[in-house]
Lipopolysaccharide assembly protein B
Amino acid sequence: MEQWLLYGVLSLLPLAALSGFLMGRKHRKGKQDSSLSSNYIKGLNYLLNEQPDKAVDTFIDLLTVDTDTVETHLALGNLFRKRGEVDRSIRLHQNLIARPQLSSEDRNTALFQLGLDYNAVGMYDRSEKLFKELLADPVHKNESLVQLLNIHQLTRDWDDAAKVAEELQSSLGVEQSKPIAHFYCELAQQNRQEGDVKSALSNVKKALAINPDSVRASLLQGDIHLQQENYKQAIKSYQRILQQDIAFLPEALPKIADAYDNSKDKTGYKAFLDKSLERGAGVSVLVELSKIVQDDKNDRAAAALIGDFLQERPSLKGLQRLIALHIEHAQDSAKPSLELLDGIVEKLISRKPRYACHNCGFEAKAIYWQCPSCKEWSSVKPIKGIEGE
């Protein structure tokens, strides 16, 4: 506790020194104010009596806002916000803005900092209003667009998020097609929940128009068609993933199987799986294909298919499928060992993450279109290799 107080006192000494300097300068100009002198002494007394909070307020009051002290006020505001004392930062920036002698440039800078203060305490409606006002200022326009984009994402205002991202892309030349496509997908999700299929499909089409490689948009479009029992269109939407990012195909496999099954097209489903493997699909596709081979031929043929694949691309999931095929035909003495091995592999698979963020390394068992850690869109991908696909 004593160390903290000492640190607080020491951290305020520069502010006290600055206040003293300003007071001395006014004195040299013949404008000394007795109240200024008494307040300065009062601030020092607060420091000596280990009351740093009161000392801060006293010294801030001594800093008359003029062209020489604006930067000092702004620096103090940043310091307070970083230390979590946002209420003080807000009061300081509001005090700055209220000064009639402040230049328009300094006022806009103070407005931007006040917007950051409001963001820090979750007052997004107030910060949004300030950043929108600053869009008219060329100096703060791009920074304000970035802040507005963050606010709209936090408040899940996807329509405005898309508009701001498009303006940011136009203004800065920074590619925003991936996040914009996700914003339209978010809108489509909301439309589906509200039962508005037409609007959902419309927003999905916008997502694909902006980013033709949007796997999420293809999945959503396929899901909507599948729900509407439009199986051919569902299959067409899901098949697009082969060109977009084949690593995400396992996300759609159960739905693709459902669509082909409802279409009574087992041959078409097998052809699709064969085509997917030729293009480099992972073990999930192989497992599905092995089930068809098992039905059409026998367990031995399915096991041979899995074994050939594992020689080239070892996989826990493939090993588990191979064990399951052998258990049925194993001798009674061998079954317990195979079942034990199957249980071990199952535990290994269940404990391992299926997805990882290529930007920050975040790992998860479920897909996240926006990384919960670094907030990047489209950075979370399926894990490949022996523990993945």
Notes: The radius of gyration is 32 Å. The first strand starts at residue 355 and ends at 357.
